[in-house]
Design a protein that fits this description.
alpha/beta; 6-stranded mixed sheet; 5-stranded mixed sheet
């Protein structure tokens, strides 16, 4: 019997695509694809146990040892800085973290820049590197509306196609960092299951 590797998958399309890669890499779990409400699935023969969690919670499960491995976006790693090992860029869920604002907006640096975002750590670090004084406005949704209502000058958010920005009269002003899905590992789990995890990473790297 193989030593089981626990893997946290983000619910939704990204998690399904990630499982597809893992299946191709030799870590299938057919039960996972069945129409049911289960959250935990395992295949002892392949030595793997999967479970579905909210995307923003993946890194927490991995950091705290409830899972050996997990799939999460680079944005989560940059924003929350979990104590995990980043093992592999899965080249999925590609997008970018950007500064966006009204087409007519010009930052003249004469006052503090008002920045609306849910990624406050990323925004603060970005503007700190430019020595730009800002006022952070933390929002959880519909961030594009903030500049339209005069709540902020610009926003910092994830941009995939830019369609939502364009439809709301906004445009990308600056790209902060590219974002994609990453395979991350619990530090203790990597120590005790290193051989199994390195084998998985090697096989997964062949199909990415």
């Amino acid at each position: 019997m193989k030593q089981m590797i626990n893997i946290a998958l983000p619910k939704g399309r990204l998690g399904e695509k990630a499982y597809g890669l893992l299946e191709k890499a030799g870590y299938p779990c057919p039960e996972l694809l069945e129409d049911n409400r289960k959250l935990v699935f395992e295949n002892p023969e392949a030595g793997v146990r999967y479970f579905w969690v909210k995307p923003s919670d993946v890194a927490i499960y991995v950091e705290r040892g409830a899972s050996d491995l997990g799939i999460c976006g680079k944005d989560i790693l940059l924003e929350y800085g979990p104590e995990v090992y980043e093992l592999l860029d899965l080249q999925m869920g590609k997008c970018r973290m950007c500064v966006a604002g009204p087409k007519e907006f010009i930052d003249d640096h004469s006052r503090r820049l008002r920045v609306a975002t849910k990624f406050t750590t990323i925004a603060r670090r970005h503007y700190s590197s430019q020595s730009r004084e800002i006022e952070l406005i933390h929002l959880n949704g519909s961030i594009e509306i903030a500049p339209l209502l005069g709540l902020s000058d610009v926003i910092v958010d994830i941009v995939e196609t830019g369609k939502t920005l364009r439809e709301n009269g906004l445009e990308v002003m600056e790209t902060i960092v590219p974002i994609s899905a990453r395979l991350v590992a619990n530090k203790s789990g990597f120590k005790f299951k290193g051989e199994e995890i390195r084998r998985l990473v090697s096989e997964l790297g062949k199909v990415v």
